[in-house]
Design a protein that fits this description.
The structure is a homotetramer. The first copy, chain A, is α+β, with helices and mostly antiparallel strands. The first copy, chain A, contains nine helices and 19 strands. Chain A is globular, with a radius of gyration of 21 Å.
């Protein structure tokens, strides 16, 4: 019951890493929205594995097939028809053999043990099953569609790799432009400062060489979001985005605006002064991350998500045998991402775009 | 529509800071649960204002009146009857006069502006209205009830003030005991290390003296939570807790286990090795914060929430006049909390307890 | 968890028949909506007991107290402020003594037995507890507010008593006018045809004389509902209204348009021919009850709800003793409604108005 | 957003009549549940078209392909693994040509007009699109799986065609047995009394001959449902079942137990006397349809759904041209079901089974 979010627009992810297919169901998309499948594919390709020496060697084309919810509109374009949209991504590369030996010895840092407890051994945990990072592909399909719809309303969502280990990228400027987002998206390594990117790549390469892995932080911004979106308390923009972003595998922290750093600031430093600019109320800085009281201010919505280091590492790890009360040493075969954070950049964008679209579709029922 | 959370157990907060009353509706509480109103009052008193030179001078007794959902059981005890429980806290101290001048000049860092946009000027923003920190009192009423119910199932929830500014408390031990939680709860200042507490109090006092405020971090833990609780993806324990904790005013970041620090670790450091201990699978450390794949491991659930500095500060701030396109200087009269984080400690506990109870009541439908 | 409905606008009912108070929480009302408390009281008075020899003698003033969500606007008017609205109705007349003897002998046709099973004896079933018809008063408070908001958008909701036993009122005309609704609402007995009303009153009086009770049917219509409201399948207008109307105590059937009679018609009789009238597409009859595929046609939304006879009757009934495996004869003391259907007329209106407002606030996201 | 129901178990239907495929996503199924695909196919075949001279000639094999949520268990058996289950039914027979001419002239009694309004002409209404009766096939897939799971807990769900036009079947006995359900299911025409069935078949054949159609009523029962299931008010069993059953195309009325007839009874006739039988509390009749106060009594849950006559009829009908303000005469080509009620029998069973499973999985949180 946990693989869906949204109310007016419901987005449901399905599939297991080594099952027949994975995908997403979107119920509540408005009709008449164009989907440019080429642009969508380009977005999906940003997270696709197998392109890069720093990623897993798993080969997947990840071309969505649409079973419902759209009508063809020529030249690689589709039009939504109002009915629920189902997109399927076939699983091509299923090397289940790699995992069979691991069933009784849960991998530290993975959901193997918790899934075993929850589903009493019935879980399909081949390749991580439904918990696999592979399930972020359909989230990207949904988010990629959301991005196209938002874009036509002047809302752009972008992200960059803010840090890997202790190597940090430059932060987004106060008003990141859609062009900046696009420029980052087109880079082979999604950073603002390519020198910082090189340092990050070195850290990742070193981790791989050490049969280890490393974590990172993704920073995401949405510009053009109108003021007044969100609800007080538990349906605020922060609550809604955080709930979805924590659903991305490996995320262990989410912060908005100054975030944890705000706890080390004074009020006079953290409060964003209001000013009139070009007929609009703005703030001279954006420590609030574009959100006050759960509701958008009209400034860019900015947040960061912390990704833990990939739990799959080649070096030996201590674990238990579940069938006997004894310990075990585990070596995880196969080739794994020594870092997931850089591939997670479009995934975080997708999550943010999906939530923002969903909240926009719910309407802003401040008044009727 | 944002002031409710939960599915099987729905918890809805209502009220404005300067309205007739505030309170909470709990729909879905099991019947036959005892509520010790004295223990509940003691819990509510932990966040009550007016007790302490470091807090606002607003005087509120905050004694909940139960209009429904309970039957008296003698000696200050109530028994839930299965019907929705409504608890009202009357607003005694409503100095609305303080705020009338502020209507046209939104306070930086507050929801004044966003509420004005959303509700087109119809919002009741006296004292922060529905966005006031005062609304955390009914959340504590709900959470205090949840804590009592959880306690009878061997689950204890506790928290401490992890930092104020750059003054840091000691972290929780690997297995915090219910007694430790109780000891912290009984302290006038909720820290593990009283020397650290003194440093924090100095920072707060200094901020007040400077007509300023300061932020902090609250760390919360729940022990005794069974393994296997939670769902994959968007209904994981992290998603569920984060959505509610971000609903607490002033929270700008939430992290589980190692959290953002995990992004600076290697996999070999961050993965928690599994071991058998006393017939149970445990981990030798708890970087995961008791959650893998959104599902509990049986280790303590540990998270931290970052609170921004109180936006209400006495010193002059730059803002705008909403009715004319011009700037304004704002001084916020009245006495305000120079830090909310220490009073937020029971609020974070309440949020965690409420979510965990809710998730336990939903059942763990791994198998049927 | 069952006493709430709605998504964008959530309406939650609380209270027990003999508790301190009952009421309703409305989370998601738009701000700036006027509530005329006099008009609201007049609506509530339509279902109030103790006015009429055909009703229970219980005396309740049923004047809602608003604890939150509104600001005074002069002359008995309130303005919603966007925050959740809480209205409390105090329970004045609580003759619990009448019910104490009944605890061990569940009343046939009441929820005594099912509540006892569900809540293991902890339920507060004095006077029917949370299942009491008294809980329809807060539903009327919510619906009365919804009716005022809808009325300002040209939507009128009205109802009449369509039948009692086999005595039938005239049906609504194809286009019932708001004035007709008002005229019925002002009658002491809410029918279109007063002669039919007299026959119904005779049947009710006769049932009372026989220490028995009688059922009836309420027909409700909403005019001015725009075409295109509702969703396919399980969120259609029929599904949404039925779910709430079945929440009214004693309702055992709900039908839209021709309803069950449609099952005895031919397609050529039941299909409503489309015609252009005054620049709008209409149908020449309304067998569909204004709904096709779950979505409104723009014709009046028409439905009927069947109320069973009041289960509380004075004559002896066969039941069981729960504490011993033995039978018992039960006589229910006190004075009860020999029919609930006539008092249920405003309740059905309230349910319909609340659902329609809720669906309108959700928006009609056919396109974006 | 309307094609999903359920909370703990979410069931989402997708697809259009003439799209690539239709299907169902089930999120929240317990793990370790066996699905007998042969039994499931037999159930699906009960609603499949093209078997019978009284049904549409559309040919569909309707064999579900499972993309996720299951693992093979040998001999046509699958085992659920806890992850969301996706079942796809490919659309084989898509004669879209038949419908192209109809775009501008909405078919009376169909959702053509309402979908056109809602989705501003972007809807895919070929063959009824997402509103097609064809979408009941995936509902049957979900319900067929639910029936298998319920059956292992001693709960049997069955239905029969209670009437066609004015030809009525015998009612279910007080305690219908699973064997009776099975016997009806195996009949070519799903009635209890085959003579009544013959009269119904004659009425259907006559309607076809008259280029017309006819409606009917399906009666459904669930036996073995434990007492205490359901919630008060808006989450009662009646509300939950009705919301889903009204989602089945052509349903215009739903009633439980005596239903509308209860409105013509006296309380002494309609109240079901409680008795002890074999150590259990039962009632001597079941006018309540197994539900009091929204909560199950332990008696069979019994309800009826009224189906309108098929709106697609061969004879000429009056409609409008949408593109010009003028009328039109419409003849619907192709071969259509002259009655849908007999094919709807398994669909109603499926809806009931799905809701009951969902409610059982939510737990009965009367006490904790």
């Amino acid at each position: 019951m946990g693989s869906e979010f949204g109310k007016t627009l419901k987005i449901s992810i399905f599939g297991q890493s080594h099952g027949a297919g994975i995908g997403v169901l979107m119920d509540g998309l408005p009709a008449g929205e164009e989907i440019d499948t080429n642009a969508l594919q380009a977005f999906l390709d940003r997270r696709r594995p197998g392109k890069d020496p720093l990623s897993t060697a798993r080969k997947e084309t990840d071309v969505p097939r649409f079973l419902s919810g759209v009508l063809p509109a020529g030249e690689g374009k589709l039009l939504t028809c109002g009915a629920p949209l189902l997109a399927v991504l076939d699983n091509a590369d299923q090397r289940s053999g790699d995992y069979d030996a691991l069933r009784d010895t849960p991998r530290p840092g993975h959901a193997d043990y918790t899934a075993w407890v929850k589903w009493k051994g019935y879980a399909d945990m081949r390749g991580g099953g439904h918990f696999s990072g592979r399930l972020t592909a359909p989230l990207c399909a949904a988010g990629g569609i959301a991005k196209q719809i938002l874009s036509r309303r002047g809302i752009a969502v972008g992200a960059h790799l803010a840090s890997v280990g202790d190597a940090e990228d430059a932060p987004f400027p106060l008003y990141p432009a859609a062009e900046l987002f696009q420029a980052v998206a087109e880079k082979p390594f999604p950073v603002l400062d390519d020198d910082a990117g090189e340092r990050m790549r070195s850290l990742i390469a070193q981790a791989r060489q050490d049969q280890d892995s490393v974590g990172g932080v993704v920073e995401c911004a949405a510009v053009g979001v109108p003021a007044g979106l969100g609800e007080p308390m538990f349906e605020g923009v922060e609550s809604r985005i955080a709930a979805v972003v924590f659903g991305i595998p490996a995320v262990k922290g989410v912060e908005f605006g100054a975030g944890f750093a705000a706890s080390r600031l004074r009020g006079s430093e953290n409060n964003d002064p209001f000013v009139w600019e070009q007929g609009a109320v703005r703030t001279t800085r954006n420590r609030a991350g574009g959100i006050l009281g759960g509701i958008t201010t009209g400034m860019p919505v900015v947040f960061r998500a912390a990704f833990k280091p990939t739990p799959s590492i080649a070096r030996a790890q201590e674990t238990v045998r579940l069938s006997y009360e004894e310990g075990a040493e585990l070596r995880i075969p196969g080739r794994h991402d020594p870092c997931v954070a850089h591939r997670a950049v479009p995934v975080v964008e997708a999550a943010a775009a999906a939530v923002l679209l969903e909240m926009l579709l719910e309407g802003n029922h401040g008044t009727f």
